[in-house]
């Protein structure tokens, strides 16, 4: 049985070149925060050479320098370091399906599988125990009065923020009397099937909100347009993930590559 006051936690965040490993996207950054209970013991922030370009949306979000990435080690060169960090730890990440599908993919390229016997997804933890309007990392940070950690690295900032949100949620759940073990799940590759399309929380919630979305979209020539759209369906085709939507700007159905949507906001209903 784990004791939250002194358990070894590994708060994990992964940045990627795009939205899906099944369409060729790779890991380009891994941030890990190791704690003993709430006490930070170490932090590790690794840039990786993904051996492909960043998508427009990924570049906009993580702000990584492609020249630095191309000079960084490949995933196969950091596996020993990563496994040593995660060994015997309770691994905590937000929207674990999204991150771990990428780890799965990297290990499969090395003819290996992933096993994490002690995993907590803060997204599922929040959804199962708190009635909120959104479960994105930023919304949870606001809901639990957690300041988003200011870091040069987007991945490290998210890993530290996930840590603070996790402990805030566990403090709020103390009256239930449940031990930490009750919140721990098991991940054994390939427990989550390849055919699933797992999106970042903010994008998934926006698409499924049932409301119009305001997007900034970068076309193949790098030109950015602003549009109001109503999502219809997400489609995984042979090369990329697409969003079919009615475009109110063009007054017609359009298909948008999801990795070219660099900003998205949900329309706020009028009172």
List keywords for this structure.
271 residues, alpha+beta, Nucleotidyltransferase, domain 5, SH3 type barrels, 2 domains, six-stranded mixed beta sheet, five-stranded antiparallel beta sheet, 8 helices
Helix-strand string: EEEHHHEHEHHHEHEEEEE
**Average pLDDT number:** 89
The residue fraction in helices comes out at 25-40%
Could you give a short account of the major beta sheet?
6 strands, mixed
Strands of the widest sheet, in order across it, are 3-2-1-4-5-6
Strand tally is 11
Give me the secondary-structure category. alpha+beta
How many individual helices?
8
Explain the overall architecture:
The chain is α+β, with helices and mostly antiparallel strands and 271 residues long. The protein folds into 2 domains: 8-197, Nucleotidyltransferase, domain 5; 209-266, SH3 type barrels (Roll), CATH 2.30.30. It has 8 helices and 11 strands. The strands form 2 sheets. It has a 6-stranded mixed beta sheet, with helices on both faces. The relative contact order is 0.15. The model has no long low-confidence stretch (mean pLDDT 89).
């Amino acid at each position: 049985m784990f004791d939250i006051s002194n358990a070894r936690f590994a708060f994990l965040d992964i940045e990627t070149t795009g939205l899906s490993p099944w369409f060729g996207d790779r890991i380009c950054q891994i941030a890990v925060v190791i704690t003993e209970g709430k006490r930070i013991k170490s932090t590790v922030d690794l840039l990786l050479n993904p051996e492909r370009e960043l998508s427009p949306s990924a570049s906009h979000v993580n702000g990584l320098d492609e020249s630095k990435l191309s000079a960084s080690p490949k995933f196969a060169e950091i596996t020993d370091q990563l496994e040593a960090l995660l060994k015997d730890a309770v691994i905590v990440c937000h929207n674990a399906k999204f991150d771990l599908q990428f780890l799965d993919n990297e290990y499969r390229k090395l003819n290996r599988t992933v096993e994490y016997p002690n995993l907590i997804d803060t997204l599922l933890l929040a959804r199962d125990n708190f009635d909120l309007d959104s479960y994105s990392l930023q919304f949870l940070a606001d809901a639990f009065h957690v300041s988003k950690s200011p870091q040069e690295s987007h991945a490290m900032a998210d890993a530290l923020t996930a840590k603070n949100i996790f402990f805030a949620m566990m403090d709020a759940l103390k009256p239930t009397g449940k031990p930490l073990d009750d919140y721990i799940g098991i991940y054994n590759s390939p427990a989550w099937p390849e055919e699933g399309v797992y999106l970042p929380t903010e994008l998934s919630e926006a698409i499924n909100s049932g409301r119009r979305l305001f997007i900034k979209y970068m076309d193949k020539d790098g030109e950015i347009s602003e549009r109001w759209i109503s999502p219809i369906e997400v489609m995984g085709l042979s090369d990329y993930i697409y969003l079919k939507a009615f475009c109110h700007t063009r007054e017609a159905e359009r298909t948008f590559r999801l990795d070219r949507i660099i900003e998205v906001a949900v329309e706020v209903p009028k009172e």
